[in-house]
């Protein structure tokens, strides 16, 4: 088996019972330590519900990420630009960022847009985003190289979260992040595998030594990145920069106008 990230040899590593019924083989790359499953034939079943029952941290995760995204945009990007939340789920982050004055749009092929309807990337003409966020997405990717290529068509900078393998002998029994019960986590990364992924595209790679990562064509100081992504210091920086006018009222009027237009009788 070949590693899809660095193309080195990957050998059988461990197995687990997916969705409580499929015994699935995991492989591990001998070069970059990327762990991935055999061809995931069970994904249609796993995505019967795009947000799994085990994702009870969805609301807290978005509350945690919003000030971090704000501080990164405030420090390094055009705050008046457009932004994309890739694999944006119910649209919660998009709504929260728009409420804080940032022109965010959602992308997700699996999940219904509940909180940011009319603010999908398909609702407006194509654009290049200042920043693309992809929180808890990379561990779902069948082919991270191909998917990152798609992301880079939308933005030159990818801010994402995924957990790094905590030890060299990690296993489904020792690390909860495998979550075979849901069948959706099919890719598990080491620090080396993410560096190899960035290198394939000539991207700079920043990491906060926890679960937040940045791939960018822009060179960013990693010490400052760690400070900005720290909840306390990032929050302090946001207070200095100040609040942006919320898009809530503007968005309300847009949705209201669309609704009113839908009530009009068709013209002959």
From TrEMBL:
Signal among keywords:
no
Asked whether the UniProt record includes Methyltransferase among its keywords, one would answer yes
One GO MF term: methyltransferase activity
Q: Which UniProt keywords apply?
A: Methyltransferase, Transferase
Biological processes annotated in GO? methylation
Query: What top-level branch of life does the organism fall under?
Result: Bacteria
Pfam families noted in UniProt? Methyltransf_23 (PF13489)
Name of protein: Methyltransferase domain-containing protein
């Amino acid at each position: 088996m070949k590693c899809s990230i660095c193309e080195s040899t990957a050998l059988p590593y461990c197995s687990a019972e997916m969705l409580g019924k499929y015994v699935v083989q995991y492989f591990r790359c001998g070069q970059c330590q990327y762990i991935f499953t055999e061809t995931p034939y069970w994904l249609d079943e796993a995505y019967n519900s795009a947000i799994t029952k085990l994702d009870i941290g969805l609301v807290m995760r978005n509350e945690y990420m919003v000030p971090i995204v704000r501080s990164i945009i405030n420090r390094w990007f055009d705050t008046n630009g457009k932004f994309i939340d890739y694999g944006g789920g119910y649209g919660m982050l998009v709504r929260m960022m728009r409420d804080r004055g940032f022109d965010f749009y959602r992308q997700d092929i699996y999940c219904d847009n509940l909180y940011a309807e009319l603010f999908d990337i398909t609702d407006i003409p194509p654009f290049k985003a200042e920043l693309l966020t992809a929180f808890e997405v990379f561990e779902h990717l069948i082919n991270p190289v191909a998917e990152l290529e798609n992301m880079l068509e939308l933005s030159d900078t990818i801010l994402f979260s995924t957990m790094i393998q905590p030890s060299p002998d990690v296993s489904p029994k020792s690390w909860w992040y495998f979550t075979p019960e849901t069948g959706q986590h099919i890719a598990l990364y080491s620090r080396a595998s993410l560096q190899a992924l960035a290198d394939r595209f000539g991207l700079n790679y920043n990491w906060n030594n926890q679960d937040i990562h940045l791939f960018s064509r822009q060179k960013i100081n990693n010490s400052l990145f760690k400070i900005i992504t720290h909840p306390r210091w990032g929050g302090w920086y946001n207070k200095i920069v100040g609040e942006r006018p919320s898009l809530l009222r503007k968005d309300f009027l847009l949705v209201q106008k669309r609704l009113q237009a839908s009530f009009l009788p068709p013209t002959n």
